[in-house]
Specification:
alpha/beta; globular; binds ligand C2E; binds calcium ion
């Protein structure tokens, strides 16, 4: 909302990590979540990341946010492990600014190891972008992350300029098909371009041995279409909006108790 911008960042008083669950559409089971930052104004209104993430990317403040998010996620994993909750991977967004830091791997490993979290439970989301002046450098960073046992997801897939080349050379675990394709699915117009391209992205990722996730899935029809075409994971309002960590813990607890 525009009022968000006019109130400015100065009025923000609390930040919190929200988790958006991801599901397997074949059996509607929980498979993990994405961590998303939320900033609150006094009174409880939320300032959307749309307003501050781009600004913080330009001056590097985003690094502090991303590390805060990763730390909260790791703290929770430690707690959940002690409580005997089932552990599913959680993805954290890795800003472009962070990727260019030479000490990135050390910083990330320090945080994750401080809480004794298994690296395979952390999945870093990177965005495909034309801004990567040095794609070779990005590929090197991703290989280093993989060597440490972390998972890697390509966020907003299909919106950049070099999707195909990136798929070939990057050590990806998951591609996240951008919401802009999903919006065109099951609109009533059969075989429109979004549907055909989604099918092709799913087939291509399957051939390359990369798992696929559809973002921004809002309807049953979209979910069914993606399920039929073999999409591995679904994230979107159809299953759940981003929720406070306590809400996600409730889901884990239900699974642990066999009530889900
Ligand atoms: P993103 O990484 O592509 O995150 C997905 C966004 O889509 C989230 O918005 C989520 O709330 C929204 N979304 C999920 N499912 C649906 C749906 O079914 N319908 C609709 N209409 N929207 C859906 P959010 O949380 O506002 O985040 C916006 C962007 O801000 C993110 O896009 C990401 O680029 C950035 N961001 C958020 N948190 C962080 C963070 O901790 N670090 C960094 N670096 N970036 C972040
Ligand atoms: Ca993301
Ligand atoms: Ca995305």
């Amino acid at each position: 909302r525009d009022t968000d911008r006019s109130r400015g960042l100065g009025d923000v008083y609390k930040r919190q990590v929200y988790l958006q669950p991801k599901y397997n559409p074949q059996n509607d089971t929980l498979t993990g979540a994405e961590a998303l930052i939320r900033w609150f104004y006094k009174g409880g209104d939320i300032l959307s990341p749309k307003y501050f993430v781009p600004q913080f990317e330009t001056d590097g403040t985003i690094d502090i946010i991303d590390r805060y998010v990763l730390r909260q996620v790791c703290k929770k994993f430690k707690e959940w492990k002690e409580l005997g909750y089932p552990l599913y991977p959680i993805s954290c967004n890795l800003s472009r600014h962070q990727i260019s830091r030479p000490d990135l791997i050390y910083i990330l490993c320090d945080i994750v190891d401080e809480y004794g979290v298994d690296h395979s439970l952390i999945d870093f989301e990177i965005t495909e972008s034309a801004d990567f002046a040095d794609v070779q450098y990005l590929i090197k960073v991703l290989k280093d992350l993989k060597a440490e046992g972390f998972k890697i997801s390509m966020d907003d897939f299909g919106t950049g300029y070099s999707s195909m080349a990136l798929l070939k050379d990057m050590p990806l675990d998951i591609i996240k098909i951008d919401k802009s394709f999903i919006d065109g699915i099951a609109t009533g117009e059969p075989n429109n371009k979004d549907m055909l391209m989604t099918q092709d992205i799913l087939a291509m990722s399957r051939h390359l041995g990369i798992r696929s996730l559809a973002e921004g899935v809002e309807t049953f029809e979209q979910k069914e279409y993606l399920r039929e075409w073999g999409c591995h994971y679904i994230q979107g309002y159809y299953y759940s909006k981003p929720i406070p960590i306590t809400g996600y813990e409730y889901l884990l607890k239900k699974i642990m108790l066999g009530q889900s």
